């Protein structure tokens, strides 16, 4: 078991970042009924998710735990008022936070990255439902984070009739 190929993932995110930059600000998706997040809100949510997951990776690496507090996604998105942010500014922030996080993940020793935690609350906040009895590792947390991010990026791309080729990192 190894770290995911972080260089390939970073290259892949660079391509997605470039594609996202081609979406003109005046064509960004907005839900007039406020039932769905706008493109800016989705990107803001991905920034919030990256910030929370970055913190999880640091804490897990230094304190050997996978027990964390969650966060109210909607409250964070509403608090930031992401719908009013400049599109490129959001994309730049998302891209740089992920680049920073991938460097952190690459610095985590393999034995810490692949360690399975018997005591955890990861099932309370994971994107991919966990099977009963699974003991998660930081590698699983990273893969889950990545899949969550791709899920939301696909939402933005679908708003603009664009498709992305997904990179499998398992």
Question: Quick recap of the structure?
Answer:
With 170 residues, the chain is an all-alpha fold.
Description:
- By secondary structure, the chain is mostly helical.
- The protein has one domain (6-15, 37-159): Four Helix Bundle (Hemerythrin (Met), subunit A) (Up-down Bundle).
- The protein contains 6 helices and no strands.
- The protein has helices at residues 6-21, 39-63, 73-80, 87-107, 110-113, 138-159.
- The longest helix is centred in the first third of the chain and has 25 residues, at 39-63.
- The radius of gyration is 16 Å and the shape is globular.
- The model has no long low-confidence stretch (mean pLDDT 92).
| CATH homologous superfamily (4th level) name | dinb family like domain
State the helical fraction. 55-70%
Q: What percentage of the residues does DSSP assign to strands (E)? A: under 5%
Could you give the count of β-strands? 0
Overall CATH class: Mainly Alpha
Overall SS class? mainly alpha
Order of helical and strand elements: HHHHHH
Main sheet characteristics: none
Average pLDDT for all residues: 92
Task: Return the CATH architecture.
Answer: Up-down Bundle
What's the gyration radius in Å?
Answer: 16 Å
CATH topology tier name? Four Helix Bundle (Hemerythrin (Met), subunit A)
Overall tally of structural domains: 1
* Basic shape: globular
Number of DSSP helical runs: 6
Q: List segments where confidence is low: pLDDT < 50 over at least 5 consecutive residues.
A: none
Keywords:
mainly alpha; 6 helices; Four Helix Bundle (Hemerythrin (Met), subunit A); globular; 170 residues; single chain
